[in-house]
Hints:
The structure holds two protein chains of two kinds. Helix content of chain A is 72%, strand content 2%. By secondary structure, chain A is mostly helical. Chain A folds into three domains: 28-74; 94-187; 205-243 and 255-454, no CATH class. The longest helix of chain A has 33 residues, at 147-179. In chain B, a hairpin with a 4-residue loop joins strand 1 and strand 2 (180-189). Chain B folds into two domains: 2-114, no CATH class; 167-218. Chain B has helices at 2-8, 14-32, 47-57, 60-88, 98-114, 144-163, 194-207, and strands spanning 167-175, 180-189. Chain B is mainly alpha-helical. The relative contact order of chain B is 0.07. The A-B interface holds A 1-10, 17, 19, 213, 354-355, 358, 361-362, 365, 368-369, 372-373, 376, 379-380, 383, 387-389, 410, 414, 417 and B 137, 139, 141, 144, 147-148, 151, 154-155, 158-159, 161-163, 176, 179-188, 191-194, 196-197, 200, 202-204, 206-218. Strand 1 (2-9) of chain A pairs antiparallel with strand 2 (180-189) of chain B, so a sheet runs across the interface.
Amino acid sequence: MNTATTTTTTTTTTTTITLNEGFFARRSLFDWLFAALVAAGAIYVLQRYGSAMDGYDKGVLIGAVPCAIWLCWFWRPLRVLALVVAACSLLAIQLYQGGAGGDLSRADTVFLLKFFLSSQSAILWMSLLFFMSTVFYWIGLFSRGEGQALMRIGSGVAWVAIAMALIGTMVRWYESYQIAPDIGHIPVSNLYEVFVLFCWMTAAFYLYYEAQYKTRALGGFVMLVVSAAVGFLLWYTVVREAHEIQPLVPALKSWWMKLHVPANFIGYGTFALSAMVAFAYLIKQQAGETRWWKLTPLWLLGVVLCFEPIVFRQGGADGSGGAYWMVYFGISALIVGGILLGRRHIAARLPAFEVLDDMMYKAIAVGFAFFTIATVLGALWAAEAWGGYWSWDPKETWALIVWLNYAAWLHMRLMKGLRGTVSAWWALVGLAVTSFAFLGVNMFLSGLHSYGTL
Amino acid sequence: MKRYVAMAVDASRPDLAQQLAQSAGRALALFAGALSDKDGHPRTGGLQAISDFMEANVPEAERARAGEVLVRILNGTLFELAQLTRERAGQPPLQQGDKTQAFMTQAVLSLSDAQRYPAPVAFELKDFHQVQASVFQVARATGKNVVYLGCALLILGVFAMLYVRDRRLWIWLAPQGAGASHASMALSTNRRTLDGDREFGELARKLIGTEPHGGTTT
């Protein structure tokens, strides 16, 4: 219960106080301009391509307009992001137009496409920028004078990386239709594509909380998990040629996929985010700890999470890319060790415990809500595709475990007021469970969900 | 064997023909497993026997070439054997060609593997009917709409649980001397987050014009 007291002299005048401005009263000119642009775009599309769309397509398009406007009004930097991504994607599509419609071979000849806008280049840029952003955040965290400026650069770079990821996704979507009309699909269908989704989703959620809580000190932590995902993505690209656009397996040809997969990845992204915040929490808490055996569990868990893909990879050291993984392992062990060594310094820069705790809760709350949606959508899709809502497929079972885990976490917090160390450890372990559900199931357990094998 | 030798070698070179006949005889004997080894145990035949023989008797450098020659001789004699059998059975001889070649390759391999087959009987496919089949599954969920409703309520409930905060605000005015009063303000909420604190701060500033103080308790 919050309290405040004051002593005033009574007067008889009546004044009206506005407690909160109305939703529309807070809109700026740019807000309205943006809304008008989105609506105009949708109307143009309907008018020009309406004849090729069926009822569902039109419904989704019309429904997307208010959603996009609301989302971008809710968090204003998204307006710029949306406009930039739309402009660059349209530019890329424009550049792909050869003599007779789209021509994929132009990706090798047109300068802008070759180096920036074709989906491959854009995603490589994204990878590079995420690494850079991580580095800036960490230097910022450790440097004495220019820390804030460096971290501001870090978040700027992260924004550009998100934009590149989205442009890459959009252009890839277009490219897939240029290979052949029946190959075309939304790029959320295999492990490569969902890793891109995971990277930008996690970074975007982080940037939202960064603005919300006005602290950049957590950037390094969250970008670490994003960088780990990017490292995995690069390995996957180089060794497995995963970036090639493949036709969809028949089972995935469904519009449910467009909803089910992104909803799931909002969940995975925010769970990863909350786990890294929990990691920061524990670092801050153990800042004064000097006995090494007290720090070991944290170090071990940190290493495991930083390089989760290999832990779950059978025969990680053999065959292709063994050396790559050893280097990867070495780097992650060093990073986590370094964080633990610099814990005192980092702890001084981290925001207060309450803020970390609150951020953890907010992230898990969003993730849990969307994970629920994803699971429900998955069940409905399963009913349509496999003839039953729930068939205890390994992926489904593990999704249930993840869901129950976070449900219990939220329950303990909301009902019993669980906070602090226990909830931080729990959130960190939650990431191990989540990443097993995400990656481990694909590798170890076969089942109906075996689309993204390693 | 004689047929093969007669086909393969010019009739004017009897010494060569004899040599070839000897090699062919050796190859066939090895392949059939007819030779016993040094200790008198019967050997297993097949291609493996030829390979073993090569390893034991031919120096390594020549092994590949010699092996090739021996296998070619073996194939040739077996082919002639097949032709002979067909002739006796009153069937037309096999035509030289890719198909025959493939058949012979498979036949030699199966003869070779037959030596290792552990059972004294082998089953042979005599007839084959292909039956096209499809499996259809029919599912009918009568309570579909109820499930949809339940799902919608579940999602609604989760969002309500997380994002609907009920808050209660108290303002207590106590008279304090002439014309003055003392206002206390308090807020309770079922979701204690930093948002609640911030909101209370704003309300306190706007309503009673003071900064919040005093602790927050659950």
